[in-house]
Amino acid sequence: MTPFVAELLGTLLMILLGNGVVANVVLERTKGRGGGWIVITTGWALAVFVGVVVAGPFSGAHLNPAVTLGFALTGQFAWSAVPGYVAAQLIGAAAGAALVWLFYYAHLKATEDPARKLDLFCTSPAIADRRFNFAGEMIATFVLIFSVFYISDGNLTLPDDGTTLPVGLGSVGALPVAFIVWAIGLSLGGTTGYAINPARDLAPRAMHALLPMGTKGSSRWSYAWIPVLGPLCGAAAAALLFSGI
After folding, report:
1. pTM (2 decimals)?
2. Helical (H) or strand (E) element with 165
3. pLDDT tens per residue, range 48-93
4. How many H helices and E strands in the chain?
5. Does residue 147 surpass a pLDDT of 60?
6. Cα separation of 53 and 169, whole Å?
7. Chain-wide mean pLDDT for the chain?
8. Residues 149, 244 contacting (CB under 8 angstroms)
9. CA 3 – CA 78 distance, rounded (Å)
10. How far is the C-alpha of 217 from the C-alpha of 112, rounded, in Å?
């Protein structure tokens, strides 16, 4: 498992489960239809947990260009590795979205509302105001990145031979990240759907544009820059503050 493969697979699993829970809640004739916001935010938090569990030991489980940018800006990650990580995240997100499309294809065909189909691929604002939408994505991502900077890993180093062993679940570092994402979704997700990850929004939005699914509306590319630039600006702000403390 190389870092590239780990980032790709971790992001794929995160999108498969994260966008999958949205599909389960919003599409017609699913068992989870109408489950609501608590189900979606919980499913997304657990999706992040799974992605971090898989990718963590091999790549650090960024799974998000904003995370990669934040660590690079604070000097904790090599700039030369940034393009490869971002490419893996975008490919993984596209593949995960394609798997959600395949898994829920019959329910996509049974759903006539184009907006609900778009929801399981990418984010959209509850109230369209680009100033506040951008600020919302920036602030929510700031919370994510700034909090991640303070997470210590769940490893125990034995004093006799220096062996490093996982503590508890073996991936305890994934638990705090999942809780942070859950908290952001519950508290700050109601305005834009909390993309907080350019790859999570951009690549699946492209898949929505490309894949057949019966009646399909716009992919809303005019909004797409907000869940890309907003999170990147939030990550930069978090990195600047963290570096200055």
Report:
1. 0.94
2. strand 164-166
3. 999 999 999 899 999 999 999 999 999 999 999 999 999 999 999 9
4. 10, 2
5. yes
6. 10
7. 93
8. no
9. 13
10. 10
In whole angstroms, how far apart are CA 128 and each of 94, 95, 131, 191, 192?
25, 29, 9, 9, 9
**Per-residue pLDDT reduced to its tens digit, 112-133:** 999 999 999 999 999 999 999 9
Q: What is the CA radius of gyration of the chain?
A: 18
What DSSP line would sit under 7-57, residue for residue? HHHHHHHHHHHHHHHHHHHHSTT-TTTT--HHHHHHHHHHHHHHHHHHHHH
**Is the CB of residue 231 less than 8 Å from the CB of residue 196?**
yes
Residues 6+ apart with CB under 8 A from 193: 119, 123, 124, 125, 126
Phi, psi of 166 (to 5 degrees): -70, 145
Contact residues for 150 (Cβ-Cβ < 8 A; gap 6+):
none
Q: What's the CA gap between 127 and 36, in Å, rounded?
A: 18
Report whether 47 contacts 124 (CB < 8 A).
no
Rounded CA-CA distance 192/115 in Å is: 14
Number of neighbours of residue 209 by Cβ within 10 angstroms: 14
